Amino acid sequence: MDLLDSILNSMDGPPATNEQQKKVIKKQRELVERMQNKQKEELLRFRKYVDERMGRFAKDDRVYIEFQPMDKVHRSVIHEIAENGGFIAMSFGREDENRHSVVYKKEHPPSEDEVSARRNGEGWTKDVAKEYSEKRKERVALEQSLNEKYSEASDGAAGCSGQIKPASNYKAKYAHLIGESAALQAARKTETNQSYGFVPSKNKKDMRSIEQTLADIQAKKKLKLQQQHEQDLAETDILIPATEQQ
After folding, report:
1. Which of 21, 139, 213, 227 is the most exposed place for a label (fewest CB within 10 A)?
2. Which InterPro entries is this protein grouped with (predicted)?
3. How far is CA 10 from CA 1, 60, 174, in A?
């Protein structure tokens, strides 16, 4: 134990932090705190703005209101307030490009055509609604006509043995009208989920609250600043002995 104690006593202790380094650390902490407070205040202002806008929306005769493109944190605020207010909130567009939220009244949910148009990036106007309505009518009429022809062919061949095979694939022939499988899947009817509009809360990928999301972001920034500061201190410790030797 005496030998171990002598070795430990002979080792150099950690370098002392001088006044200049203490000032740098203090400034960094103050900067992080100011950034956190600024973001909290900004989110509070945005939440107040959304509350007021949805309050006016609930009293007028509009069917929906549309927000400008924004990041995921601000969109989550819109969805949270919409859920608490009894509205339906949906997001359309590509992330980091034009992803935006649209809020509907529950008594006026979006139609299949509107959802398809917005997912295709076409927006929703009277002209777009008319175009999608005509396409849907043509598709329904075509499917009914083909079903009638198939029924007549089946009745005519009822006494014949063997399996009836169509002469051509009508889906490929009329793809420009009825769409491909991906388009048909996108046009599938969407049913309202009473718990959270068209997106159940249990299916959300990120279950964190706004405060927790903000805290996680700030923790990452703080860790990055701390690592950078430790690296700067290490470089300073290397340069100081070299300067003293000169």
Report:
1. 227
2. R3H_dom, R3H_dom_sf, R3H_sperm-antigen, SPAG7
3. 14, 80, 88
